[in-house]
Design goal:
Largest interface: A-B, 57 and 51 residues
Shape of chain B: globular
CATH class of chain B: Mainly Alpha
CATH architecture of chain B: Orthogonal Bundle
Radius of gyration of chain A: 33 Å
Oligomer: heterodimer
Strand content of chain B: 5-15%
Shape of chain A: elongated
Number of helices of chain B: 4
Chain lengths: 561, 80
């Protein structure tokens, strides 16, 4: 019986590197270097790769320092010849060899290679269909959020302006509070903070659907699709991260531009981020959407989000071709997690954490702004007509600038100015002006138990109504006519007296695009300096004015006004 | 393979998903992932986003839409 001679496997790393390995092996003999238990070729490769552990061990061996110096020279030579470190070249050859072996030996049936996730991704991340699919998903989500939450918004509004206002009023009467304190709490704080808190049910439902999309794995695909779209219009690949953050809040989004190496690209992205519709604008969209468009409010809100993206893309194209020509962009790779069934616990946690942040803001920034607003609406002390207050006079002075946009009343001008602090304050200011200040309809006096029963009954009615609206989505089911379901919150009633549907849309466009809030401008100033913060404020306000002008005047020309 | 991967990323105008790279290079996604991790170690790729090193100073973690999107993202490191 003859035995086949055993040959050791040796991976060929290519001529130049192989020659350097051979030179290193020869140098072991020449320098009387004992490689001890290490195979010579393996040690030569590790030394050329500059493996830290091996370098440390060899350093401690006799003649080790000489060998390390030779290895360092050899590694530099290879790098200058092949343009890369030795460890990258060896790894490249190893991966290539392994992949070749796998391809030759392992035959996977096609059915295993293309998973369900791959099949879904082929559609939802498709070069052409991906973006329309994303917008369709967003459209369905906003329709659902608005339709399902509308009865709950109505209920919350009734609770805040009914039983809660009554309770505060009762307590103030009990302690014989002076009239000014009564006015501050009821007309200022309850109307201002309450005007924003009305939207908590809507946000809960919105965050529920967003959490469903996130947990299912779709949001990663949405980010991927959006990234591709941004590149098409000339934006940097990394811009998508701040842009997506901008849908939540522009402040962290501006700071997230730090992931971009080029200063020009950072500035460009920071200028576009505030055009993404942040969550603070949502209460403005919801209140006007429900007041003027009823069951079509979801479509209007979706259109605002889409318009923000479109204007950002157009502005990006203008900037990249004029002031801020970007550096060559680097490609990016995205690990898309597989689709999975969302867990209820995780969805509820996401929903609660996001809503809690909104409520926290209402309890701090909006609370403080409501107190300041109340003061400004009541100074000089004893003023009876709000338009004669300091706030009213300043607002009256600036309101003519909005006349070509269809909303030249002083209340709107003033509310837009206060939106500079935070966009939700537009709603709280309007609530204070229209609902507070004695403008609200006097309510029938009720007892505490009647209020409690009313809250419970209202909640049950809202739940039934929402359930019917939800069931209406099923084809063939008509439990409710959404066209007839116009919402009548105290604020929406007041708004209908001061706006037309066309001027309401123009206002929404203006709110979407005008000057970023003070915190965002602060972040831009902190990151890029005062001049860019001023640029951001000026260009956005100009874009907002022009866009609202086109909407209002164009709408009138087309006969919508 | 590593060279091909880097070249692929450098030459693509748009982003690539793991499965797309897998198809382009005719290699398993798990193998591509290990290559990507190695390239990150060698500083040829930079990991960005919530799993990278850029969000550690941000206090608005619970508000972060990117964190919720979960996927890791990498870009080719700029050439020195």
């Amino acid at each position: 019986m003859t035995s086949t001679p055993r040959t050791l496997f040796r991976l060929d790393y290519g001529g130049k590197l192989e020659r350097e390995i051979a030179r290193m092996v020869a140098s072991f003999e020449e320098n009387k270097f004992d490689t001890e238990h290490y195979p010579q070729r393996w040690l030569a490769i590790k030394l050329l790769e500059c493996d830290a552990d091996i370098l440390e061990r060899v350093q401690a061996m006799p003649n080790g320092a000489q060998i390390i110096e030779l290895a360092r020279q050899g590694a530099e030579k290879i790098k200058s010849m092949l343009g890369d470190e030795v460890d990258m070249i060896t790894a490249d050859h190893r991966y290539g060899y392994i992949n070749g072996v796998v391809r030759q030996t392992l035959h996977r049936p096609n059915i295993d290679r293309i998973t369900l996730t791959d099949r879904i991704d082929d559609v939802v991340t498709h070069k052409w269909f991906g973006l329309p699919f994303f917008f369709a998903i967003m459209y369905v989500m906003f329709r659902l959020v608005i339709d399902v939450s509308a009865p709950f918004l109505d209920w919350t509004d009734a609770v805040i302006n009914g039983p809660i206002a009554h309770l505060f009023s009762f307590l103030l009467d009990l302690v014989l509070a002076p009239a000014w304190l009564h006015s501050l709490i009821i007309d200022g704080i309850v109307a201002g903070v309450g005007g924003v808190l009305v939207f908590v049910p809507g946000l809960l439902i919105l965050y529920f659907f967003l959490a469903l999309l996130e947990d299912s794995g779709y949001m990663s695909r949405a980010a991927f699709v959006m990234d591709r779209f941004m590149r098409v219009v000339g934006l940097h690949g990394k811009s998508f991260i701040p842009m997506i953050l901008g849908f939540g809040c522009a402040v962290p989004a501006v700071y997230a531009t730090r992931t971009i190496a080029s200063r020009r690209d950072r500035i460009l992205t920071a200028l576009l981020v505030p055009l993404m519709s942040c969550s603070a604008r949502l209460p403005v969209y919801v209140v006007f959407g429900l007041a003027f468009f009823g069951s079509r409010a979801g479509t209007v809100i979706w259109a605002m989000y889409a318009l923000g993206i479109l204007i950002a893309m157009l502005s990006g194209m203008v900037f990249t071709r004029t002031l801020l020509k970007p550096d060559a962009s680097s490609a990016f790779v995205l690990e898309l997690p597989p689709y999975r069934q969302p867990s209820l616990k995780s969805v509820l946690i996401h929903m609660w954490e996001n809503t809690r942040e909104f409520v926290r803001k209402a309890g701090t920034v909006i609370f403080a702004a409501s107190v300041v607003m109340w003061l400004l609406l009541n100074l000089p002390w004893g003023v009876t007509n709000q338009q004669d207050s300091y706030f009213g006079k300043v607002s009256s002075a600036i309101s003519p600038a909005f006349a070509p946009l269809g909303f030249d009343n002083w209340e709107t001008g003033g509310a837009l100015v206060t939106g500079f602090i935070a966009k939700e304050i537009v709603v709280s200011t309007m609530s204070q002006i229209y609902i507070g200040g004695g403008n609200a309809q006097p309510a029938e006096p009720t007892t505490f138990s009647e209020d409690l029963i009313g809250i419970g009954q209202g909640f049950i009615e809202a739940t039934i109504k929402s359930g019917r609206i939800l069931l209406n989505i099923i084809p063939g089911v008509h439990l409710i006519d959404p066209q007839k379901e116009t919402e009548n919150t105290a604020l929406s009633d007041a708004l209908r007296d001061h706006f037309t549907p066309l001027s309401a849309v123009a206002l929404l466009v203006f709110v979407l695009l005008y000057v970023p809030c003070i915190a965002t401008l602060g972040a831009i100033k902190h990151e890029f300096g005062s001049s860019w913060a001023v640029t951001s404020a000026v260009y956005q306000t100009a874009v907002a004015w022009i866009a609202a002008f086109i909407v209002y005047q164009g709408g009138k020309l087309l006969g919508f006004g | 393979m590593l060279t091909q991967l880097i070249k692929l990323l450098e030459n693509k105008e748009s982003g690539l998903s793991l499965s797309e790279i897998s198809r382009e290079l005719n290699a398993q996604p798990s193998a591509i992932m290990s290559m990507i991790e190695m390239l990150v170690q060698k500083r040829k790729l930079i990991e960005i986003g919530p799993d990278g090193k850029h969000c550690t100073s941000c206090g608005l973690e619970s508000d972060c839409n990117l964190l919720k999107a979960h996927g890791k993202r990498y870009v080719v490191a700029p050439h020195n």
